[in-house]
């Protein structure tokens, strides 16, 4: 089964939640470290604070923060001459819940690739 054979309702529901910029921002270990640091901080952090704790140069931390901000995972707020960053997970949580719901709905309607999973399990069983 390929993606084009999915029911149009499933495709629409999945497409609504599969945001390339969001998932692209999460695929880099350095960005994940930045996001984790922001999530663990007691308050917002500056670029230099993020860079110092994550082993990155200020320019690298700034690029990572920009990408996370564009993906909606981080909010930036100007405070005087500095910009501080804080995590913003509300929309991310909604996206993940929506994606999980869409996947469950597609699987409930028989749209999942259950046969492929079964075939792979059979291959593993034959090798043991």
From TrEMBL:
<protein>
    <submittedName>
        <fullName>Regulatory protein ArsR</fullName>
    </submittedName>
</protein>
<keyword id="KW-0238">DNA-binding</keyword>
<dbReference type="Pfam" id="PF12840">
    <property type="entry name" value="HTH_20"/>
</dbReference>
<dbReference type="InterPro" id="IPR036390">
    <property type="entry name" value="WH_DNA-bd_sf"/>
</dbReference>
<dbReference type="GO" id="GO:0003700">
    <property type="term" value="F:DNA-binding transcription factor activity"/>
</dbReference>
<feature type="domain" description="HTH arsR-type">
    <location>
        <begin position="11"/>
        <end position="107"/>
    </location>
</feature>
<keyword id="KW-0805">Transcription regulation</keyword>
<dbReference type="InterPro" id="IPR036388">
    <property type="entry name" value="WH-like_DNA-bd_sf"/>
</dbReference>
<dbReference type="GO" id="GO:0003677">
    <property type="term" value="F:DNA binding"/>
</dbReference>
<dbReference type="InterPro" id="IPR051011">
    <property type="entry name" value="Metal_resp_trans_reg"/>
</dbReference>
<dbReference type="InterPro" id="IPR011991">
    <property type="entry name" value="ArsR-like_HTH"/>
</dbReference>
<keyword id="KW-0804">Transcription</keyword>
<dbReference type="InterPro" id="IPR001845">
    <property type="entry name" value="HTH_ArsR_DNA-bd_dom"/>
</dbReference>
